[in-house]
Amino acid sequence: LIQLTPDLPLAGRRVVVTAGGTREALDPVRFITNRSSGKMGYAIAQVAREFGATVTLISATTHLPAPSGVKVMMVDSAQALLTAVSDVYDATDILVMAAAVSDYRPVELADQKIKKPADHADLTLRLTETPDILKTLAARKRHQYVIGFAAETQSLLANANRKLTSKKLDLIVANDVSKPGVGFNGDTNQVTLLRPQQQPVTTELATKSVIARKILTTAIADGAGKQA
Ligand code: CTP
Ligand code: CA
């Protein structure tokens, strides 16, 4: 069936994409987050749908409209994202972790709005590490093809290769987010795709939709998520 429908190369495949920057609450009105727009993940979800997949997009808060034909689940924190992805993971063929997961969260969540101290003293926040969702799930992968991102500002390929290996990924999308037009927030990206034992593939600067196609066609060429 897959050979007969080359325009729908992901027909019958279940793709889960995470997107956006998680929010880690401090109190009822404040949170810690990052500059992720969610655009790269939404573009991947859209292209996976166009390729015929059944797509679930698990999204942190963004300003983006839901891609058509895609099931969208909204989450806020890293912990909520872990729970949501874990719940669907066994029934997933391809996982794409495009979300910018906060690496730390406040140790304490105040149940009332934190007040300024009367003496105007400095305020110290204590943060603790969040779970590594990608590493946790890739460690229990069976048929799943697992794709991660690496957002770097230096030593792009060395750092991305280390993540590819240490997180046991099938593909990592290396992003030099210090370059103009690359990574967080914009409508364009330029990436290098790294896979175990294969030559790196570097793309031109292109729209996130074009980059999404390149990521998915590379995964498809690897036989991504096919049940043996
Ligand atoms: N990631 C994750 N859970 C986390 C942190 C990151 O699943 N708690 C995922 C991201 O979605 C991304 C990949 O891991 O696909 C790499 O994220 P990145 O921030 O580049 O790397 P880290 O492993 O967090 O390391 P560092 O931030 O120190 O470079
Ligand atoms: Ca990180």
TrEMBL record:
Q: Which GO terms describe its biological process?
A: coenzyme A biosynthetic process; pantothenate catabolic process
Asked if the record carries the keyword Magnesium, the reply is yes
The molecular function terms of the Gene Ontology recorded here are: FMN binding; metal ion binding; phosphopantothenate--cysteine ligase activity; phosphopantothenoylcysteine decarboxylase activity
Q: Which cofactor does it need?
A: FMN; Mg(2+)
Name the pathway.
Cofactor biosynthesis; coenzyme A biosynthesis; CoA from (R)-pantothenate: step 2/5; Cofactor biosynthesis; coenzyme A biosynthesis; CoA from (R)-pantothenate: step 3/5
Record region (Phosphopantothenate--cysteine ligase): 15-228
Describe the reaction catalysed, as an equation: (R)-4'-phosphopantothenate + L-cysteine + CTP = N-[(R)-4-phosphopantothenoyl]-L-cysteine + CMP + diphosphate + H(+); N-[(R)-4-phosphopantothenoyl]-L-cysteine + H(+) = (R)-4'-phosphopantetheine + CO2
UniProt-listed Enzyme Commission number(s) = 4.1.1.36, 6.3.2.5
Residue ranges annotated for the DNA/pantothenate metabolism flavoprotein C-terminal domain, each copy included: 10-218
A single Gene Ontology CC term? phosphopantothenoylcysteine decarboxylase complex
Query: Which residues participate in CTP binding?
Result: 103, 113, 131-134, 149, 163, 167
Q: Which UniProt keywords apply?
A: Decarboxylase, Flavoprotein, FMN, Ligase, Lyase, Magnesium, Metal-binding, Multifunctional enzyme
Q: How is the cofactor bound?
A: Binds 1 FMN per subunit.
Physiological role = Catalyzes two sequential steps in the biosynthesis of coenzyme A. In the first step cysteine is conjugated to 4'-phosphopantothenate to form 4-phosphopantothenoylcysteine. In the second step the latter compound is decarboxylated to form 4'-phosphopantotheine. Catalyzes two steps in the biosynthesis of coenzyme A. In the first step cysteine is conjugated to 4'-phosphopantothenate to form 4-phosphopantothenoylcysteine, in the latter compound is decarboxylated to form 4'-phosphopantotheine.
- According to its UniProt record, which protein family does this protein belong to? In the C-terminal section; belongs to the PPC synthetase family.
Q: What protein name is recorded for this chain?
A: Coenzyme A biosynthesis bifunctional protein CoaBC
Q: Which organism is it from?
A: Lactiplantibacillus paraplantarum
Q: What is the lineage of its organism?
A: Bacteria, Bacillati, Bacillota, Bacilli, Lactobacillales
